[in-house]
Design brief:
By secondary structure, the chain is α+β, with helices and mostly antiparallel strands. It contains five helices and eight strands. Strands 1, 2, 3, 4, 5, 6, 7 and 8 form an eight-stranded mixed sheet that branches.
């Protein structure tokens, strides 16, 4: 079964253009050493506590859980969703890779997955009963099926003539090609 994941692009979506332009999603874990899908949750926890002492147990558990979800729960073919708060737009794509480590693309977000970004949806076009479920403060979380269904039913191709362009904020006159990733490896 295909899952649907919200992966935040940093506080207030600061890295959303890096995500879209490079065809990626990424999370912060630069102080933990190289993380691959072979690193267990227990090892991630050990590294986190060692690097962030004296983090509280709750802080450690929450952060380790976010990293573990990104590393071990997301699969190729799952949907990825991220949000640009300034423009109130969610971007939707499909996960295309396992995780890999690249501190050169976004220095403090080195744990990366490729994504093919294909659709967008204005926050205003999402049914109001589902908006609160997307407002969680978590970096990585699974979107509820009823919310993901509403998003899929209302999303439009990125830069379609009936949506506002993410780069200009104006309506486009022609369809643009799907965003392509740059290979940072």
């Amino acid at each position: 079964m295909t899952d649907f994941w919200m992966i935040r692009a940093g506080k207030n979506g600061i890295y959303v253009h890096d995500f879209l332009g490079s065809g990626i999603v990424a999370i912060e874990c630069s102080n933990l050493g190289i993380i691959t899908n072979n690193v267990s949750q227990d090892e991630i926890a050990r590294r986190y506590i060692e690097a962030n002492h004296p983090a509280t147990k709750i802080q450690a558990r929450n952060t380790v859980s976010q990293i573990d979800r990104f590393v071990h729960s997301i699969s190729i073919g799952d949907f990825a969703l991220t949000y640009e708060s300034k423009k109130r737009i969610y971007y939707l794509g499909t996960i295309e890779s396992d995780i890999f480590w690249n501190p050169n693309l976004i220095s403090n977000l080195p744990c990366i997955r490729y994504v093919k970004w294909t659709k967008e949806i204005s926050r205003d076009d999402i049914n109001s009963k589902f908006i609160s479920s997307l407002g969680a403060l978590l970096t990585v979380f699974k979107v509820k099926p009823e919310t993901s269904g509403n998003i899929l039913n209302n999303a439009r191709p990125i830069f379609s003539p009936t949506t506002k362009s993410a780069s200009s904020g104006r309506n486009c006159n022609e369809k643009m090609p799907v965003l392509r990733r740059r290979d940072p490896r």
